[in-house]
Design a protein that fits this description.
By secondary structure, this protein is α/β, with parallel strands linked by helices. The chain has three domains: 244 residues, Glutamine Phosphoribosylpyrophosphate, subunit 1, domain 1 (4-Layer Sandwich); 197 residues, 3-Layer(aba) Sandwich (Rossmann fold), CATH 3.40.50; 142 residues, Glucose-6-phosphate isomerase like protein, domain 1 (Rossmann fold), CATH 3.40.50. Helix content is 36%, strand content 23%. The protein contains 19 helices and 24 strands. The strands form four sheets. It has an eight-stranded antiparallel β-sheet, covered by helices on one side. The chain has a six-stranded antiparallel β-sheet with strand order 5-6-7-8-12-13, with helices on one face. Helix 3 packs across helix 4 and helix 15 packs across helix 19. The structure holds fructose -6-phosphate. Fructose -6-phosphate (F6R) binds next to helix 9 and helix 16.
Amino acid sequence: MCGIVGYVGWREAETVIVAGLKRMEYRGYDSAGIAVVTADGVVSRKKAGKLVNLETELVEHPLASSHQGIGHTRWATHGGPTDENAHPHLGRTGRVALVHNGIIENFAQLRAELVADGVEFASDTDSEAVAHLLEREVLDGHGLTEAMRRTVGRLEGSFTLVAIDAQCPDTVVAARRSSPLVVGVGDKEMFLASDVASFIEHTREAIELGQDQIVEITPDSVAVTTFDAEEAPVRPYHIDWDLSAAEKGGYDWFMRKEIFEQPKAVSDTLLGRIGADRLLVLDEMRIDVAHLRSIDSIIVVACGTAYHAGLIAKYAIEHWTRIPVEVELASEFRYRDPIVTSRTLVVTISQSGETADTLMAVRHAREQRAKVVSICNTNGATIPRESDAVIYTHAGPEIGVASTKGFTTQLIACYLLGLYLAQIRDAKFGDEIASLVRELEALPAKMDEVLDDLGTTLALARDLMDCSVVLFLGRHVGYPVALEGALKLKEISYMHAEGFAAGELKHGPIALVEEGLPVFIVVPPRGRDQLHDKVVSNIQEVRARGARTIVLAERDDAEAERFADVFLPLPTVPTLFQPVLAILPLQEFACEVATLKGHDVDQPRNLAKSVTVE
Ligand code: F6R
């Protein structure tokens, strides 16, 4: 949600900033802007719409050379996506320019105060008020860093702020509260960004910023202090992926590339977590084993796709550990006064690690004295930093707005957590765990098999691209797969898609079924209870009413294939692991439909990758 860049060094600031914004456009793409310090003071350009509009503006109205500047790509909250509301915002005299990610909750009050002081607002944004406050402090004689400190003292809400001052050469200053910001450390140059992808082509050395910290960068230095002016420890780290991970590598979309990266992402997520005896080694579980043995309930909290991963985790964790698991949408969690005690383990799942709803749930859970384990893909993000333990999914950067490898690696992390809990609580015999772990290790090769055989899925996308409604059905862990398949299709193809529990259909939604309606059905592997047979009956129910059935089932499942208009075969795996395979054709189907419809798959309308507002 909004991408921010700051640069100071020896390169042309405009080039670095625009390239950095390009890599972060997935975070928001309503409008974009840049401001640099030149010999004539601060100069800015900003434009509504995608970054390309700003690039055109920069060609038509070039900026003077500069080595110090800030940039922003926006996902609108306060004020629509117009040129005026685009960032950067300038102070009244134009001496200071500022970009902001987040929401200033006491904005109305600040704006009223500034208006009473004679300030005329040029935009409808909350961010502009901060630019005016900051400039007022600077005009009062405070240096930019001190002015920033005084300004953040007036703000309520969440924010990353990055600012330049025409009279403060070779310096960019930023502040961070509950919103992401990292420093990139180069050779005689420094970068600031919401995401390391923005500067990965220049440096792989980064510094994490903590909550409520201010950073001042110059070409040779990084100084981090707290909002209370205390010196803060600097936490450097090395980024373990390179530029190629942040580029499309020959694919038409990041989403498509990320779909095909999943086997590797899954094996990377398993790496180092399995011992020679095929038992689990989760060194990162920094929660005392005695405590984990004593927990009596688990609540999984997440949003969107990550929530669907959580729904699958419930089946697995309950089955292996017999600990009751609830799964809750993060945006609902704290508002229902959940029953959380010191014996509850709260598990959050978040690809970005910055989702505000999930972050608030972490804080709420910890206030209730629960321990929080986070499953996250982004090193050093706010959610893992504020959790008691973290299991990182090693998926590499996920840039397509629709989550794909984020989802499958979240599933792997959930399986690892469930099996680990079963192991330390002696809920399963070692050989049972080892045999499941072997099945996990076999998944990447089976994922490759599915991804190598997507011809039918692509043809199906061509056939169905003009349908107005598509349904997805599943039972047991196939049900969240159906929800996720429908979400993928909705968010990038803008088609009306719904996922239902297959058994629930007859309680209402079956009324939607009419001649020719495409219905995807995820059929579980055979042999477990009557799960398989029940779903085969559900296929017949919809087929009898004219639906066109698209059946995902084990390769040699003749019974399921008999009732399929289109059959999408899957390799055999244990039921609980089938989602890792079954979701692959559904992701590719959504990606292809959206491509054929001419949509921007990586930047679907109204969405942003990292949702840092509640
Ligand atoms: C859908 C999607 C979203 C995210 C959700 C949570 O494709 O990507 O539904 O899953 O916004 O995001 P994270 O995992 O970053 O907390």
